[in-house]
Protein: ADP-dependent (S)-NAD(P)H-hydrate dehydratase
Organism: Conchiformibius steedae
Amino acid sequence: MTPFDTETSRRYALQHFPDICQPRPENSHKGTFGTVAVIGGSKGMTGAALLAAEAALYGGCGKVMVGLEHYPPPVHHARLELMADDAVSVSAGSADVWVLGCGLAETDRAAALLAPVCRRADALVLDAGALNLLAKQALPLPDVGQTVRVLTPHPGEAARLLKSSVDAVEQNRVWAARELSSRHQAWVVLKGHESVIASAQGFLRINRSGNAGLATAGSGDVLAGLIGSLLAQGIAVEQAIAASVWLHGVAAEWLAARQTGPIGLLAGELPVAIRWLRNRLVSTAGNAA
Ligand SMILES: NC(=O)C1=CN([C@@H]2O[C@H](COP(=O)(O)OP(=O)(O)OC[C@H]3O[C@@H](n4cnc5c(N)ncnc54)[C@H](O)[C@@H]3O)[C@@H](O)[C@H]2O)[C@@H](O)CC1
Ligand SMILES: Nc1ncnc2c1ncn2[C@@H]1O[C@H](COP(=O)(O)OP(=O)(O)O)[C@@H](O)[C@H]1O
């Protein structure tokens, strides 16, 4: 397990993700940092979409809408800042980045809900149910036109997309990530221990941050929301994706250093840690090397 170290993290972030270390202009407003819309949350899984939405908010974007397929959720979300509604209404609106699939059941109804969004969105993050619909060829993606398209499969979802097995994916994770990025002309984050990030243009990075505390329900939803958030803020695509994966992992290290993990770490604790880390990076970015 990598221990959290503030100085090492600061140096790494400044070298690889300078954009996330920039202070905010004093005259900024919420429109400056973009809008994320999350669509997901079928019956029994509304928490997944709400976690993604909350992570987007704590990740620093200006506004977050969340469309739940099962609406209203059985337990009202705690974050009053989220603009929550039913999935049909939210999917008819507009957003800078769409995060699709967290907690979404793979039904025909869900496919019909997501298809028009996929056709018109400039930027898409596909996770969980959206990936499974893609694997079933129930979700068409346009050949061209999207500024950015990100797929965030765990090995099970990657195996479904590749019509392969989890073992085959795990034996060659770099191949699996590259193959998916080329087939779908997308950025791919193949999740799990040491997530692999690949793009159709040849970008490849293996993320080393994180610990087994992330092996808990909902941590992937948090990652999807965070990627959407950094993209909506206009951070360069390569940095937004790789920095999200890195920050997500460092947040788990930071929580473990406070004995809030790895055992019993809750996905819902990650967003606050991510916020602390990002603000810390910004406030110490100018320190002498
Ligand atoms: N609070 C909530 O509402 C939650 C809802 N969730 C939603 O539940 C739905 C189902 O997702 P699941 O991922 O649980 O189920 P899946 O059936 O999609 O995937 C689980 C299987 O994937 C494989 N797998 C996953 N990660 C692996 C790894 N690192 N190494 C090897 N194999 C791995 C394993 O075979 C595992 O049994 C999704 O829509 C998801 O968003 C989950 O995110 C948990 C929290
Ligand atoms: N042992 C581990 N070490 C590092 N990261 C991990 C580990 N286990 C899981 N993760 C990370 O946690 C997240 C789990 O996502 P996912 O499998 O989609 O879970 P869920 O569907 O419950 O949200 C991914 O970002 C993955 O990379």
